[in-house]
Design goal:
The chain is α/β, with parallel strands linked by helices. It has two domains: 23-88, no CATH class; 101-259, Aldolase class I (TIM Barrel), CATH 3.20.20.70. The protein has helices at residues 3-9, 21-26, 32-38, 44-48, 50-55, 62-65, 78-81, 150-159, 178-189, 203-206, 213-220, 240-252, 254-259, and strands spanning 110-114, 117-121, 165-169, 196-201, 225-230. The termini are close together. The structure holds iron/sulfur cluster (SF4). Iron/sulfur cluster binds next to loops.
Length: 262
């Protein structure tokens, strides 16, 4: 659990630009030919990935792009985001719902597999589209929760008093504005049964500026035991800006990190 923190402790902090996380998001690359050209890769890679791109659109924010090696078609970060023909192959024994979430989806936006833990699909969007994503076929359309419908989650929790831990998942829960996340948090805090909130996100990994003051404000003010789970796949993803974001979180909200940081 502390391994990544130890890595962060030895990475020097470099300067970075001043864009907000949402500005980084708006400048993300969504064009396959543009990605291939930007990284000096053969144009044939764009052609062979076209069908997969149509099936699941390419999305790469530039702070993540900067960690991909120029001219290397086998870069481990590139392979996570580059659409490939192999994604379209059918493989015997593979399924579109490997975690069998459809069997545990009792109502809109809720996945309830364990007695004391409830997973809430907060949004269907992400800051990066990972080719391997096990939720890329999840029926987000049927599980899209309008802001006004959050009460249905609260009602479900009241009807299941054994649940003491809520996981905000998605998509990526940190795609929501901090004001909306704070509002959800307050509603959960009002339920005495809820002790812990887990926030599962890849957003700070691909756009480290997501660890902003607004986010730290609602996290540090909560009575809940908040556990941030960052989805990191490869050591090359841990650059100086990510280290700085982790350091900021560690200093302002140390319980989040010491209680659960992967
Ligand atoms: S960020 Fe997470 S949910 Fe979104 S595409 Fe990647 S693995 Fe899937």
């Amino acid at each position: 659990m502390n391994t990544i923190l130890q890595i962060f402790d030895v990475i020097p902090i470099h300067t970075k630009n001043n864009l907000s996380w949402s500005q980084h998001l708006s400048q993300a690359i969504t064009s396959l030919p543009e990605l291939v050209e930007h990284l000096g890769l053969p144009k044939s890679l764009a052609q062979q990935g076209a069908e997969a791109h149509q099936s699941f659109k390419l999305l790469v924010p530039r702070p993540y792009l900067s960690r991909i090696e120029y001219g290397n078609p086998n870069d481990p970060l590139l392979l996570q985001v580059l659409p490939s023909l192999s994604e379209m192959q059918k493989v015997v024994g593979y399924t579109k719902d490997p975690l069998e979430e459809a069997d545990h989806n009792p109502q809109k936006a809720i996945v309830h597999k364990y007695k004391r833990r409830l997973l809430v699909i907060t949004t269907g969007t992400c800051a990066v589209n990972c080719r391997y994503c096990f939720r890329r076929h999840f029926p987000y359309g049927e599980n899209q929760l309008a802001q006004a419908e959050w009460e249905s989650v609260i009602d479900y929790l009241k009807a299941h008093p054994d649940v003491n831990e809520v996981i905000l998942s998605g998509g990526d829960p940190l795609m929501m504005k901090d004001s909306l996340l704070a509002d959800k948090l307050h509603k959960l805090e009002a339920l005495p049964q809820i002790k812990r909130l887990r926030i599962h996100s890849r957003l700070p990994v691909v756009i480290p500026d997501r660890v902003c003051d607004d986010m730290l404000t609602w996290i540090t003010a909560s009575r809940l035991d908040i556990v941030m789970v960052w989805h990191i796949n490869h050591a090359n993803e841990v650059d100086a800006n990510l280290a700085q974001a982790a350091d900021k979180l560690k200093k302002r909200a140390s319980p989040c990190l010491t209680k659960g940081y992967y």
